[in-house]
Amino acid sequence: MMARKNLLLAVSAALVYLFLYLPLVIVVVFSFNDSKLNAEWVGFTWKWYGKLLYNQEMLTAAMNSLIIASVSAGIATILGTLAGIAMHQYRLRLLQMLVLAPIAMPEILMGVSLLVLFIMVNMTLGLISIMLAHITFCIGFVALAVQARISSLDPALIEAARDLGATPWQCFREITLPLLMPGILAGALMAFTLSIDDFVITFFTAGVGSSTLPLQIYSMVKIAVTPEVNAVSTLLMLVTLVVITVASRLSPAIFRGE
Amino acid sequence: MKRVLSVLMLLFLASPVLAAEELHMFNWNDYISEEVVAGFEKECGCKVIQDYYSGTEEMMAKLQAGASGYDLVIPTQNAVQALIQQDFLEKLDKAALPNIKNEDPGFLNRSYDPGNIYSLPYAYTTTLIGYNVERLKELGVEPNSWAVIFDPQVLAKIKGKVTVMDDADELFGAALKYLGYSVNDTDEKHLREAQGVIMKAKPYWAAFNSSSYIKELTVGNIWVAHGYSSDMVQARNDAKDAKRDFMVNFFLPKEGAVLALDNMVIPKKAKNKKLALQLINFLMDGKNAAGLSNDVGAGNPNAAALPFINPELKELTAIFPDQKVLSTLETLDSTNTKVRRLKNKLWTEIKLK
Amino acid sequence: MLKTVQGKVWSKYLLSLPPMAYLLIFFAAPTMIMLFASFRYPGEYGGLAPWLVQDGGQWTLDLTLENWQRLFGTDIYLRLFVKSIGYAVSTTLICMFMAYPLALMIARSGRKSRDLLLLLVILPFWSNFLVRIYAWMIIFSPVGALTRILNGVLDLFGAGPVTLMYSPTAMIVCLVYVHLPFMVLPLYANLEKHDPYLLDAAQDLGAGKWRRFWLITWPLSLPGITAGSILVFIPVLGMFAIPDLLGGTDGIMIGNVIKQQFMESRDWPFGSVLSMVLTVAAVVVVLLGSRLSRQRAGMGGS
């Protein structure tokens, strides 16, 4: 009985994975395609990767994207986790609005309004202004993931720790935080993904010469995105995967919530 | 794994910025010859850092909010007009620009900047129609008029194989020309008439598309596309390179079309005006100016460039219009709020119905 | 006792102040600027007109309600909202159906494989958005395999050929694709904690697997569903890139019109009006939705 259900579950999950990876296969395969049209298979080549090595602009942009995404996701995860816990424990209407509204705010308006703000306070546009903007729209995603996690937890666990004489900080560190970890991790992954892929808000908040990968790629839209972009996307995926794997090897506790 | 790590290493090595002088340029996508830029970097011992935009409004929004730091911007004529009126632009020091003599007088002293006090022409494109030669021939569609994208009788043969630009000014411009009006006509009655033409044709179109029509044409998904001349040159070459069983070509409709004249300007807030002037002068050198046409397929307002331009390209009247064709072309004027709001309303209605 | 209460007050501020302060500065303040902008006139060449004008030595306010009147003067914007909400609701529902088995499977698999499976969900999204959409465009292409196979099958049943490219179907597929992880991740975070003993206990009491699911797993997962739905529904509502690229001639959403105001027609005030309405509408929908689900969860739990 149970096994049949698991089979059904496994098959449907596998189908969803297939859906997720179908376009990705095309992205990766076409990065080896010997035609700049990016439309049908012609032949195998490494040349787009070779070209990429000499494309200083693209590499700098990729580096910028990684830096911005890591920093923004990191800070947004901290702030978002705090907000998520606070929203669950105390009925804070204002905080709830502040967390939800940036998700709902159209990107363009957010981009323009942040640009106006940065100019008003005479801030130089660059990596920092992009990060500040990215953190703004990532907080809500983390907060909601954390909140969804807390709702499923047993409040008795924390009470019990308190009764055993734990200080609030101990209680938070030893009990709450590890229990929340899957939610925090889910939030951090979403924040990283949103940041590394954002175009609109980045366009407005980027300064001269602080281009990110999406900005670079959008500038190529007109001339049909070449396989070089597929190549850089493939590499970026690999690099992120390696970084995360290494990080999780180094500190498995963080990723397992133990 | 090793490969990934070596790329990572390279990324880190690449990050320290060179100490050379920097020039920040804000230009249309894919609208410069990289070879010429490299030549300039060599000559001045500086570094040209480019940012790109893909629509006048993107650029204007960014400049209007006060973004500074660009030394050289390449806007289209109607944007130049707006930027001048907003007092964003620096007067050009003609003494530092000896190559000004190379510019074709026909493109100087235009109404958007009389006397070229703030701007100098850089390149131009027309908005025209690219098409699949074989398919249209088979169907007996004559490629000569805007009717190809507006006349329901013609469109019935190519239903679902047509894209038009996702740009109110360009599409209204084309429809107004088709009706025999000026592209800058602001009479509400005429604009409504143009809206009617667009609405009747819309069911036959596959999409509003300003971004990927080059590819769709070259792959053969789309047979008729409304777009910029330089893009169509690219589509034609791509189709040839990919050895398709069809050819992509383009034509300027006999009713006339929109001409976009792009210019070099220096913002008042520019940090490195001297270097910007130096680059403008460099780009007006005949040979350098020709690089733009040869690489990008844009028309050239530089008379001294003509001898260096690929003769095959030079012969195309859609790219290098002769006097007769030129008289049918019009540049778009900068519009005021009222007209923009009206057009926007009509445009939203088109999109929604 | 007193100490605990003090600790609570202290931790309340410690928890809520940093995110609150950040969002007040970088979200609320700029939003207020734009809310104010919705009462200003657009600048003659774009941007905003000055709101204080000097008129013969006297300073006067130059503000207007015109931008708001424009919104209510016609029904096209209302129709746009309805259409966009339609797209957003269908996308959210499809995401929910697809994400649930995936999240459940990940939550029920072993500790070690769980992280990997989760990473696999998000991995495709570290390649660029545009590149992924272009990949879908290859899949949907009229000369592509999918369209040909589909039309071959349709032909067997005597149905006419269809085009996938530039159709609402293509749009929805991509909308779902792009937003799916935002449903999977919060749902997983919620499902991961469910107590397997509850299910075992229910089984011992003789409950069938679907009954067990409906009585236990589903009600407990509602907070995850709610969070996921919010994270899918709202961003889809304001989406413009996918309708732009894949929507064809009819695929327009409110996001496109907002983009039009800021970009093509350089009408910041009206763009602000539309954005404010969209934001408020989205937040209201979400608050209503989460209240409903909380009530249902409360009922399910009891």
Please give a structural write-up.
- The complex is a heterotrimer of chains A (258), B (353) and C (302).
- Chain A has twelve helices and no strands.
- Chain A has helices spanning 2-30, 47-54, 56-89, 93-104, 107-120, 127-151, 155-163, 168-197, 200-205, 213-218, 227-250, 252-256.
- In chain A, helix 2 (47-54) crosses helix 11 (227-250), helix 3 (56-89) runs antiparallel to helix 8 (168-197) and helix 4 crosses helix 6 (127-151).
- The two termini of chain A are 32 Å apart.
- The relative contact order of chain A is 0.14.
- Chain B is globular, with a radius of gyration of 21 Å.
- The longest helix of chain B is centred in the last third of the chain and has 16 residues, at 337-352.
- In chain B, the strands form two sheets. In chain B, strands 4, 5, 6, 7, 8, 9 and 10 form a seven-stranded mixed beta sheet that branches.
- In chain C, strands 1-2 form a two-stranded antiparallel sheet.
- Chain C is built from twelve helices and two strands, in the order αββααααααααααα.
- Residues 1-6 of chain C have low confidence and may be disordered.
- Classes of the chains: A mainly alpha (258), B alpha/beta (353), C mainly alpha (302).
- Chains in contact: A-B, A-C, B-C.
- At the A-C interface, helix 1, helix 3, helix 4, helix 5 and helix 6 of A face helix 1, helix 3, helix 4, helix 5 and helix 7 of C.
How is this fold's topology laid out?
The complex is a heterotrimer of chains A (258), B (353) and C (302).
Chain A: H1 2-30, H2 47-54, H3 56-89, H4 93-104, H5 107-120, H6 127-151, H7 155-163, H8 168-197, H9 200-205, H10 213-218, H11 227-250, H12 252-256
Chain B: H1 2-14, E1 21-28, H2 34-44, E2 46-53, H3 56-64, E3 72-73, H4 77-85, E4 119-132, H5 133-139, H6 147-150, H7 152-155, E5 162-164, H8 168-178, H9 188-201, E6 207-208, H10 213-219, E7 224-228, H11 229-241, E8 248-251, E9 257-265, H12 273-283, H13 286-296, H14 311-314, H15 323-326, E10 329-331, H16 337-352
Parallel strand pairs in B: 1-2, 1-3, 5-6, 5-7, 9-10
Antiparallel strand pairs in B: 4-7, 4-8, 4-9
Helix pairs in contact in B: 8-9, 9-16, 10-11
Chain C: H1 2-37, E1 52-55, E2 58-61, H2 66-72, H3 76-108, H4 111-122, H5 129-140, H6 145-156, H7 168-191, H8 196-204, H9 209-237, H10 241-246, H11 254-262, H12 268-301
Antiparallel strand pairs in C: 1-2
Helix pairs in contact in C: 2-12, 3-7, 3-9, 7-9, 8-9, 9-12, 11-12
